User: What shape does this take?
Amino acid sequence: MTDLIATGNGSGGGVQAPGYSAFQAPVDGGDLFGGQWRAAESDGTAVLAVHGITASHLSWPWLAAQLPGTRVIAPDLRGRARSNGLPGPYGLRHQADDLAVALDFLEVERVVVVGHSMGAFVAVWLAHLHPDRVESLVLVDGGLPIPHEEGIDPIRMLGPAVERLSQVFPSRETYAQFWQAHPAFAGDWSQRLADFANYDLDGTAPQLHPSARLEAVAENVTQLNGSGGYAEALAGLSLPIDFLRAPRGLLNEPTALYARAAVDAAVARMPTFRAHEVEGVNHYTIVMSERGAEQVASVVTEHTHPA
Assistant: This one.
């Protein structure tokens, strides 16, 4: 892996923000990379923040900034960002096991797990497979099974996100421009987004490419429909679960990833499951914007500092 150093101005980006430090935890096949905020000075229960299917731990500086005093631990999942050198299998269960090992390495016993998109599925598996490590769950626009349309390749549901992984970019500026033009971030460009884009690049100019491995993404996207015991694992959880829904989709379209009826059905069948609508956001900006992170943080704080 080369040329994968994120930069920032120190005033809002993740990597040079006060209280930030990187880590690499030995796991099966190599090291799991990531970052954390306020490792040395924190109160309440620590937060483990798990990113989405093609993202990295730099999805989380917005939330970390909204949780002053709380330790926030955020890995790069196997097959993504600096953890993209880890071999498969990349299954969601394996991802959850990686997180348990990382918590051991960081000497953290129990956490509130906040998972975004695919990260919410990993969070559920962590709570199922390692229940002694998880205090509660906050599932951010993810974690409820997403049915696959019959005859449709499940990876197509990710659309442009997958197309991006096959592209080559001649410079870091070109890749930043790609994200600036993304409809999800219209009017929301910031130094934190610039850091996120910069960190995501692998290779050297003019052959730069996004760091997530397509084979990892392909393996994981087929596991989001509740198969392989996932639906049963979710239904069997008895810990507190909060689900936060974005009203707009991956491209800021008015069709959300989750219909309200599907969320209402989950509330009806799981007694510890609460649902919240996060106003004014899409599937990305629910965590990668100030207004989204503020609303997510208000729910997370109920778990880290219960009354």
Observations:
- The domain at 20-304 is CATH 3.40.50.1820 (Rossmann fold).
